[in-house]
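// run 5 | inverse folding | seed 20
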């Protein structure tokens, strides 16, 4: 398992920054659940062949082994003959399903997410269950890297111009969070959208999570 997670982290670092699309729009965080009464703010940019966007996230926890997040941002879509700006809003709820501290090989979280991306004659509403696994690897007493792998079963209602349809896809997220700067956690993520008929199939994101 350690070799698998190390391979995931290496792949996330070495794959080219191909053009991208936590949660419905991306994972962005490892599986460890926030402690009670703590918060994390995150800011990310994502790129894909036809999309460039920015997204913010606020994660909180008010109950042991449960955290939730709110996401919001803007994206610019290249639709071929023109471009358009869309608004992205979402939320998710996660439950801790296991931790390394309790004998599991990885930290594991499961939950569900919902999100909407909307603009002029363009609306995609997506929801579904999700899971993410991660493990921290320390390389100095005060620094570590946390590779993670996540997946979601995403059901989408699509209303784009004259197209009104439903879609099912399986987004896979491979990423890593670098914890080397006090109060700042840098993150990078590859997004593979298997079976998605309405979004770019591959994306890349970069950002930072700021616990407070």
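// decoded
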């Amino acid at each position: 398992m350690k070799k698998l997670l190390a391979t995931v982290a290496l792949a996330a670092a070495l794959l080219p920054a191909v053009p991208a699309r936590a949660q419905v729009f991306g994972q962005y965080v490892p599986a460890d659940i926030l402690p009670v009464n703590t918060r994390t703010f995150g800011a990310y940019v994502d790129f894909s062949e036809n999309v460039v966007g920015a997204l913010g996230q606020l994660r909180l926890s008010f109950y042991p082994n449960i955290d939730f997040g709110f996401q919001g941002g803007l994206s610019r879509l290249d639709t071929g003959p023109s471009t358009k700006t869309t608004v992205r809003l979402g939320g998710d709820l996660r439950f801790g399903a296991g931790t390394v501290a309790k004998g599991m090989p990885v930290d594991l979280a499961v939950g569900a997410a919902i999100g909407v991306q909307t603009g002029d004659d363009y609306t995609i509403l997506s929801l579904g269950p999700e899971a993410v696994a991660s493990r921290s690897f320390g390389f100095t007493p005060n620094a570590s890297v946390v590779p993670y792998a996540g997946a979601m079963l995403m059901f989408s209602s699509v209303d784009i111009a004259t197209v009104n349809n439903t879609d099912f896809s399986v987004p896979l997220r491979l990423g890593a969070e670098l914890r080397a700067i006090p109060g700042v956690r840098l993150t990078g993520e590859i997004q593979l959208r298997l079976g998605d008929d309405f979004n770019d199939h591959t994306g890349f994101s970069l950002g930072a999570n700021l616990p407070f």
